Amino acid sequence: MTTIPKRVPIPRNGVDYRGKIVLAPMVRSGELPSRLLALKYGADLVWGPETVDKSMIGTIKKINPITSTINFTRYPSNASRTQPVEQKESLIYRIHPTRERRKLIFQIGTSSPTFAVEAAKLVAADVAGIDVNAGCPKPFSTSGGMGAALLQTPDLLASILTALVKEVGAVYEIGISVKIRLLETPERTEALVRKLCDTGITGLTIHCRTTPMRPRERAIREQLRMIADICRETGVACLMNGDVKNKDEALELIQEYGVDGAMIASAAEANFSCFRTQAEGGLLPWREVVHEYVKTALEVNNKWGNTKYLLGQLVPGKAEVYRKVTSSKGYTEMCEILELQDLLDQAREVDERLGLGVNYKGAVKKAKTKNKSAQAAGGSMGKAMAHGNESKKPLSERGVTATTAKDMGGSYDVECQDPLMEQGISASSVLAV
Q1: pTM of the shown model
Q2: Which CATH topology does 21-82+89-280 take?
């Protein structure tokens, strides 16, 4: 008699992760045009960039009639700075309700069941699932008790997932999942996975690296089968992440390790057509992918800074146009450099709408004039430093410990988000400006 595998029921508005090859959550590289392009080339599901709970709380949901997107925006809330009379709204998150329908998973950065639920409720009706980030190893995330720090507080992580399952998943009928890393020993990893699978989640993604490991270090896959077996016993779908280069390799790894699906991260950042199998034509030439990316970015009026960053990943560094593309000042100039003649008219319209193009250099010059750092570089160092010292409080008065100060001195890692909780702005939105 054949035993039917146990499965946690997939909610009516949710999606089963089994048999899926998906786009991993990535800051900058997980914004709307990237997700849409991944779907176009064959990704079954897409994860948005990690968004901190407090950055979502207080946002206003609006429909953009020009791009047909759902925008979650908010005004800056940094009380330590004098705000202008007319503040500009910050775009925190965007969703395309038709092109991403039943395909988008919202990943949240959190260390609080209460805040997690409050933030998740804002987007729950427009996504196919909520995923908790318990794997980001960077101080930006861990210093707030989020990301990989949650691996060291399993009871807290389990309480967050339980709260989301009961108060968001059950109410909006979507799945709740979690993304973790390997712990120091297989025994600790096993104990954590069993604990999390008992919370009612529908999916678990394992990044096959420990917290101290970096992307350049080879993924550890020896524990995959054990993790997959636990997930299967409890009826939870198991995805793997780490060094997955394309869809064909993902399908092979699924068979080899008995997992249910796989995430692709850096390989997608370099060429989104990695979601095509060899039978479907495999990787496309970079120029074709770039054309489709720019076309998609224009359709959704993507912030130029984010588009420019992605082009820096998609255009090979050895390409003759690379330097010109990465120093371009707007869509029109970039399209001319890449000879995307069919997109020029649309590029001019978007540049005008975003305030780029002709006025860009003037705006940059004006911003530099007001910038203290720029003034200092221009010979006003003493004046700028004196002004800064008058208003700057000691670290202790600002609630910054020596450890925190040291952590904050590092460079930004595009794979993880800086939880700018005090400002109420997600790093993904800041970096896209």
Answers
A1: 0.83
A2: TIM Barrel (3.20.20)
